Amino acid sequence: SGDSIFGIIGRFSVLEKKQGLIIDKIQIFNLLKCLRNCEKHQQCQYASFNSSFCVLYSFYAKYYLQNGSKGFLYEKKNQKNFGLVNYWPIEDGQARDLVGSKDLYDSFNTVYSQDRHGSTNSALNFSGGKIRAPTGVYFGNEFTVLAWVKLKSYMQMQRLFDFGNDQVNNVIVILTCEQNYLCIEFFKGFNKDRMSTTILPDLNVWYHFGFSLKAGKVKIYLNGTLAVSFIKEVNPLYAIERTRNYFGGNDWAIPSAGDYHCDEMKFFNIELSDSEIRDEYFYEFH
To answer: What are the E-state strand segments in the chain?
Structure first.
């Protein structure tokens, strides 16, 4: 039954400050019915109940809990493996990693701007700029990266991200390769695999990008839809610490800087399914 698969976290509430946290709000006068509603929704991981009001929350509510509530917050006991290892929501003029504590730093020609919902100081805005991520193990042979991006110009070789060790073992997504098309580069040591596409985003439009790798197969998603998949196997990636990690550009190539907005960068250590990436685009949770 619904109550047997939930545990009580306690008198916590969710700081409802952003999209993607709330799945539904329902007027219900029975706790068990509230929990059963959460049980029915695969995406529901938390539920709060307060005498006559039931709120269903996504997995991301985990990172917005606060003490103090008139009611109780309940959590599904057996959560699926979300595989989320880094999450930079960009909010309140900060680029904190809510999961892996890899807060971004050392920005250059970068300010905070409005996100696609109109919230202030809630997106990174590069103007020939970049920002650095700390040393860490970000990638292995299976991963998914999601991000919202709005290009301001077709300045050449703008990197959505470039994580590596100088020019060794890099994982790179370039938004504007030859003819301004998107491309991906994977380095194993000094050996490079480049995958070119015909994806050409319009300027000044927000797009949701997704990139995944599993068993050597690469998939690229645009606005929740699979746009390109590379059947050929790429070089296996080393799951190692990468020390020179940037959004926007890097510190070794010329040109290497970003001229775009970005927001909601999420790194997973698993391959998300087509439907999960579609849900992330439409609902900002899966």
So the answer is: 6-10, 12-14, 22-27, 46-50, 53-57, 65-67, 72-76, 84-88, 105-113, 123-133, 142-151, 159-165, 168-174, 183-188, 191-196, 206-214, 217-222, 225-230, 244-248, 260-268
- Sort strands 53-57 and 46-50 into parallel, antiparallel or unpaired: antiparallel
CATH architecture of the domain with range 2-76: 3-Layer(bba) Sandwich (3.50)
Q: What pLDDT does 4 receive? A: 67
pLDDT digits (tens, 9 = 90+) for 81-139: 899 999 999 999 999 999 999 999 999 999 999 999 999 999 999 999 999 999 999 99
Greater confidence (238 vs 263) lies with 263
The CATH architecture to which 84-283 belongs is Sandwich (2.60)
User: Which of 215, 207, 204 lies closest to 182, judged by CA?
Assistant: 207
Q: How far is CA 47 from the centre of its chain?
A: 23
| Residues forming CATH 3.50.4.10 domain(s) in the chain | 2-76
Q: Are 208 and 185 in contact (CB under 8 A)?
A: no
* Separation of alpha carbons 227 and 249, rounded Å: 24
In tens, the pLDDT along 163-214 reads 999 888 999 999 999 899 999 998 888 888 899 999 999 999 999 999 999 9
Helices and strands in the chain: count of H runs, count of E runs: 2, 20
